[in-house]
Amino acid sequence: MNTWIWYLLVYSFLGYLLEVAYAKIVHGRGSGRKCLLLLPLCPVYGVGAVAIVALSGPNPQPLWLMGVGFGAATVVELLFGLYYKYVLGVAFWNYSQIRWNVCGLVCLPFSLAWSGLALPLVYTVHPIVKICVSALPTAFTVPAWIVLGADCLISSIALKREKNTAVLQWYR
User: Fold this and answer.
1) Which residue pairs from 90-97 have beta carbons closer than 8 angstroms and sit at least 24 positions apart in sequence?
2) Which of 15, 56, 67, 107 might form a disulfide with 60, Cβ 3.0–4.6 angstroms?
């Protein structure tokens, strides 16, 4: 169980970096893409990546892995989108202008992208992350859970109160 918190943190951070890069390429700006108040993390990516890794099994075939990536990432993105929208009253993304979307929360083009990204995740990135995480002292695990949990709680309270994702950009 200790390793999974680290996988979640690493993949949430890598997801944050992916978001910043995507925003820079597509919109010409790269800041303001995090989903927590203090930590530079996008937990939807972390949970999605952990789900893909956990569900892919040992030595998955590419087609199977793409299906797992498509399904797991889409379900995770939908659940996070519903939580943000109906529990916190905010939206971090809106796919309503993209064809084949469901409630603006998930869409076929991005689900296909997650499907393709599952391949380098499982075949290349995760083996490296696994080695790095195995080197971390277990004494760091409880503090990591506490910091992540506190940031998630504080961020959720702030988002629910303000109903605006800009509340997370306190540093501007």
Assistant:
1) 90/159, 90/163, 90/164, 90/165, 91/165, 92/35, 92/44, 92/165
2) 56
Report the number of distinct structural domains present in the chain.
1
Cα 101 versus chain centre, distance: 19
pLDDT tens for each residue of 54-81: 999 999 999 999 999 999 999 999 999 9
The pLDDT tens digits of the residues spanning 117-160 come to 999 999 999 999 999 999 999 999 999 999 999 999 999 999 99
Note down the domain range covering 16: 2-168
- Rounded to whole angstroms, the Cα distance separating 50 from 8 reads 6
What pTM did the predictor assign? 0.93
